[in-house]
Amino acid sequence: MKIILLGPPGAGKGTQAKFISEEYSIPHISTGDIFRKNISDKTPLGIEAKEYLDKGQLVPDEVTINIVKDRLSEDDCESGFLLDGFPRTVYQAEALDSFLNANDNKIDMVLLIDVPRELIFDRMTGRRICPSCGASYHVKFNPPKLKDKCDICNNDIIQRKDDTESTVKDRLDVYEKQTEPLINYYKEQGVISAIEGSGEINQVFQRAKNALGAICK
Ligand code: ADP
Ligand code: AMP
């Protein structure tokens, strides 16, 4: 299964991706996680990406596309993958399509997580992440079992630098201008399936499974 998770920042893509990737045994590829790992390792990519992430802007298309192509060329992606946070522009979507076409492949489903705008702000400012495995928590809606510790790797969880009030606003603007046009792009391809992202995390996962059932073999 080749799946894209689409939706505004804070929709719950990363949260659902962990469950979906486990359920269907496909790798979860989050470009945001890849950039954050490079920033924490201070690699040349991390140094370049940091200025964009800190401002809530998109990392340039060519840089991002090359990273994703490299990752999708790895063996574990042969039978499927779950993209989270990519593509984010029509240019990225076109590059992904050409890359997959060249390998006789295509996206099976774009799962759009729809969330009312008024929920997003609280979700993002209360988000905490594990810098090691990328797991996403929320101080109120999804706290870890042990205070401030990742359930999976027991690392200290942290607040993302770009989850502050002013950056969240900028990121929502970027989403509306640059990423939302992808909804029509994938509608035209007939591969989009929308689910409601409000409600309990597990409820959203059930909706995701129902939608993905249509492409499960
Ligand atoms: P995205 O990857 O789309 O930016 P996340 O999965 O990181 O979003 O979720 C954003 C925040 O909202 C996190 O703090 C997460 O724990 C929380 N969250 C995710 N899904 C739900 C939900 N269904 N209800 C309440 N909070 C949620
Ligand atoms: P995310 O973890 O998906 O919220 O992404 C965090 C940040 O990483 C974004 O605000 C961008 O700065 C950068 N980023 C992630 N994915 C992409 C992408 N596909 N294109 C450009 N920038 C991206």
From TrEMBL:
Adenylate kinase active site lid domain residues: 127-162
Q: Which residues participate in AMP binding? A: T31, R36, Q57, L58, V59, G85, F86, P87, R88, Q92, R160, R171
Instruction: Kindly report the protein's main subcellular placement as a broad class.
Output: cytoplasm
Does Nucleotidyltransferase show up as a keyword for this record?
Answer: no
Highest taxon listed in the record's lineage:
Bacteria
Q: What's a GO biological-process term for it?
A: AMP salvage
Binding positions for ATP per the UniProt entry: G10, A11, G12, K13, G14, T15, R127, S136, Y137, G199
Which Gene Ontology cellular component annotation is one that this UniProt entry carries? cytoplasm
Question: EC no.?
Answer: 2.7.4.3
Compartments reported by the entry? Cytoplasm
One GO MF term attached to the UniProt entry: zinc ion binding
Q: Binding positions for Zn(2+)? A: C130, C133, C150, C153
Listed Pfam families? ADK, ADK_lid
Q: How is the quaternary structure described? A: Monomer.
UniProt cross-references to PANTHER family, sorted A to Z: NUCLEOTIDE KINASE
UniProt domain comment: Consists of three domains, a large central CORE domain and two small peripheral domains, NMPbind and LID, which undergo movements during catalysis. The LID domain closes over the site of phosphoryl transfer upon ATP binding. Assembling and dissambling the active center during each catalytic cycle provides an effective means to prevent ATP hydrolysis. Some bacteria have evolved a zinc-coordinating structure that stabilizes the LID domain.
Q: Main role?
A: Catalyzes the reversible transfer of the terminal phosphate group between ATP and AMP. Plays an important role in cellular energy homeostasis and in adenine nucleotide metabolism.
Q: Which family does it belong to?
A: Belongs to the adenylate kinase family.
What name has this protein been given in UniProt? Adenylate kinase
Q: Which organism is it from?
A: Clostridium kluyveri
Task: Name the gene behind this protein.
Answer: adk
